[in-house]
Amino acid sequence: MCGLCGIFGLEAHWTDDPGATPVSRQADRAHRARVANTVLGLFGLKLTPWADRFTLAGRTGKSAVVGHLGAVWPTAEKLAGRPCDPLDPAVIERVEHLAARR
Amino acid sequence: MSGGWGEPVTVNLLTGFLGSGKTSLLKRLLSLPSLTDTAVLINEFGEVGLDHLLVEEVDEEVVLLKSGCVCCTIRGDLRDAIGGLMGKMRRGEVPAFSRLVIETTGLADPAPIVATLQAEPSLRHHVRLGNVVTVVDAVDGLHNLDGFPEALRQAAVADRIVVSKTDLAATDAIDALERRLHELNPTALFHRSDMESAAPELLLLQDVHDLEGRSAEVRRWLAAETSHAVAEHGHHHVDRSRHGEIRAFCLTADEPVDWAAFGLWLTMLLNRHGSEILRVKGLLDIAGVERPVVVQGVQHTVHRPEHLERWPDEARTRLVVIARNLEPALVERSFRAFLGLTARVAAPA
Fold first, then answer.
1. What is the mean pLDDT of chain B?
2. Domain B218-343, what architecture?
3. Domain CobW C-terminal: where (chain B) (predicted)?
């Protein structure tokens, strides 16, 4: 477990929507997956809501279950086989490009 | 009185370099009526037993950690020590306490302790982190900041900084030290240990979890933006001074922020650079959320967000970052790029 996650099991994580109601939680999880996939796609990965968790899958079929956004990145790096660094200028440039295409 | 398995026990970290006067401050704090239900954990290190003797008057509530350094054994010893103490309280073997002060070693990095409190499953629902209080010696403080990365890190993560031994230093030297500390950590509240008017219990009692004090606490964080305004390019303020490679800077956003995009960015950043990010503190204007959201973290650990009832000033996202070896311009560019993503995806239903 990484220090950021602070989670064993399925307890709330800080990234859970602070304005979410029980009714909106499922939609919120779907929204988080959509936002995450814009970046995860750069690493050949896709996040899919699954019950009250997510599955994270690579193009080769490797996959893992993650509980929340905090757990995505250590798993993503294992599946992608490379660092997922938001300060990598190449990553920033591609994210900027994605944002500009909206 | 709280404690037991009901209300979480507030845990304060008391840190500071070797010989800075942590234990003297602790003795003074524990003598205050408002802090009588406080338990203490001290760490035996170096001059074995010296600290223990000084705080021995706290009787049964003192527990000595067996190993030398909190940081190296944090998961086991600290968990067991806190759990053991809380177990004794539940069984009525020690008086009920609502607050626990952990006095670290002079060479401690507070971050692993914070991580344990947040991440350890047997603790995380029963404790909450209060203020990190760092004691800096007015006589040797500047020298220690220059010479020891541990001293820098302790000051950088602090919520409260107590400048000690002010009776032994010249006023100019104290002022210079405080200026340096403020540049290093513009969000901390400063006290001088000789100031009777400083209401020292406020070092521990008033924090961001406290509804009454939360707004004032956040105002101080936000003041860091203007007090350190070095408008290099619009939204990006970088402290002129460098402390080793530790720098404080402020990220801002004028438009409401998508929570998912912010969470994605910060989790990704902390996963890769968490050990370099000493503190993150800020107030966020979240799209679709009426009240401002308070976010704060120490290295890899982010606290559960809290709400403010209302904006202390304008509704605008501001995030103060205290980081080591990270280029502020690059962090800002990354922050903006990720926040720009959300227009590409449909809003939640």
1. 79
2. 2-Layer Sandwich (3.30)
3. 246-339
